[in-house]
């Protein structure tokens, strides 16, 4: 359909859609099923109109997956109803996306044959999470990666994914996982203690088995 639409032109005099050199036989199919483009609104906030413009350009270029890197260490700009303080980590009050905003983007994309792949980056690039919930940080002096010894961390991740599932209908979600500096964990006393207890527990289980 995109190939066909790009063969058409608008006649300003007659105000009709023209198709030169018709009839056409179009034999066209994508080489790759996943044809994506990434935007990063954590580091560079983009207004909704700009995101929609990107989607329009993707459609013209026959791209079908908008990889929306929403959250990173720099900012947490999206509303999470389960944990409403998370977007305290946004750049400013005006640089945020509500759940209706996200739904609007997903629906706009779907109408144009584009899936939206949402990304939150865990556990490494998560400094912005702790602005609203400081207990997610290992300590005040060491603010990422997330505190894996705290059960609350996993409750928050579960809440985010649960809220995302109500908005983003694509079959994948991206969890980042890159550039995890584990020195923060090894240098934080309560995480070191937790790690030792986990290993002792696993050792006991192995011996019992």
Polypeptide structure, described:
It is a single chain. This protein has 209 residues and is of the alpha/beta class. It is built from seven helices and six strands. It has a four-stranded parallel β-sheet with strand order 3-4-5-6. Helix 2 runs parallel beside helix 3. The N and C termini lie far apart (61 Å). The model has no long low-confidence stretch (mean pLDDT 93). Pfam families: Glyco_hydro_20. Its EC number is 3.2.1.52. One of its GO terms (biological process) is carbohydrate metabolic process.
Summary of the model, kept short:
This protein has 209 residues and is of the alpha/beta class. The chain has helices at residues 2-7, 48-60, 99-110, 129-132, 151-165, 183-186, 189-208, and strands at residues 8-11, 16-19, 36-40, 65-71, 115-122, 174-176.
Tags for this model:
single chain, 209 residues, alpha/beta, TIM Barrel, four-stranded parallel beta sheet, two-stranded antiparallel ribbon, 35% helix, 15% strand
Oligomer: single chain
Q: CATH first level: which class?
A: Alpha Beta
Helix share bin: 25-40%
- In order across it, which strands form the biggest sheet? 3-4-5-6
CATH homology superfamily: Glycosidases
Mean pLDDT: 93
What's the order of the H and E elements? Answer: HEEEHEHEHHEHH
Gyration radius, in Å = 23 Å
What's the end-to-end separation, in Å?
61 Å
The CATH topology label is TIM Barrel
Largest sheet: 4 strands, parallel
Number of strands: 6
